[in-house]
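Handout, section 3.2

Students often ask what a structure token actually looks like in practice. Rather than define it abstractly, here is a full record for Adenylyl cyclase-associated protein. The first block is the sequence as you would receive it.
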Amino acid sequence: MSVEEKLIQRLESAVTRLEALSATGFRSGGSVGTGDDTVVLDPSIIAFDDLRSEFLGKVTTVAEKIGGKVLDITKIVEKAFSAQRELLIKIKETKKPDNSGLVEFLKPLNDAINQATTMTEGRPDFFNHLKSAADSLSALAWIAYTGKDCGLSMPIAHVEESWQMAEFYNNKILVEFKNKDANHVEWAKALKELYLPGLRDYVKSHYPLGPVWSATGKAAVSAPSKAPSPSAPAPPAPPPASLFSSESPQASSSRPKQGMAAVFDEINSGKPVTSGLRKVTDDMKAKNRADRTGVVNAGEKEARMSSPCISKTGPAKLELQMGRKWVVENQVGEKNLVIDDCDAKQSVYVYGCKNSVLQIKGKVNNITIDKCTKMGVVFAVSYELQEKLTKY
């Protein structure tokens, strides 16, 4: 699109807004409207409209040529960007809420993202298109940035990191349809441009430090809640938010550390390494025991083999969390565990498994095995790693 065409689009957009405002009449004193009308004319909102018109409009145009599920997921992307626009307008008129209020405030955007994620379940046709679009929408969570302790990267970095997750599937589209259908290739390229440079440059220009809430605006409206009667049972706990969580990062940092983190903390504490060990007396040594024999009772051997060294304290899991971390937990006797939808940006954490085998089809960033017994992990070794293993 040439510079002249972009300029014409922006002028047409501005004229449309002015015509809409003129229908309601100008306010006294020469100001063009108040409240929502004034906010709509804010430069950041105008720039967001330009972003949708230029970049999102191109994605939609190509999706209409393809149709089917690709068009369906593109409409959800449109819905999510529309939800973000409405939130940007409300933020300029709303006081900054607390964590729980922020989750409720951002619910319309979260609902659209969840809707896109649901479309990827079961690996339907055009899975790479659906997954690329659904993962890309996590970039819109930059609007939840409230400071360095909120658990998110800075807005610009968050947009870039989120697209890196989606780009794995986006590149698969480019490879699959390179010599088959130019529309699919164009759609994949247009989707990337929506975020890089589109959304990234928008955030960089208007919200590099996150959204700016109103100091004098109205309080965010939370969902209405009714006080339960004394005889009524307690309501069930609400489900966890899939994208925006109200839990403070300090809450997780206050929990006792486990695994290697606890080991290093103990070493760095300066306490003697053997301070927690029991002293072995002479009568406890095997050579001085009266009942010492070289025969193992068959019943004792069977009991040892049947008693598990791990207690299954939680449900079995094999799931991808936050698009970044595969979690495999409490699997017992499962020989056919498979992770086949992974990429080099993700990690695998295996915990509390026994007598099981996990196969990882694809490259991942790292694999951690914690408190497992007889747990096999099958994965491909890169040439660089194989060279290091051979050397050492």
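Discussion prompt for tutorial groups: The longest strand covers residues 354-360. How would you have guessed this from the sequence alone?
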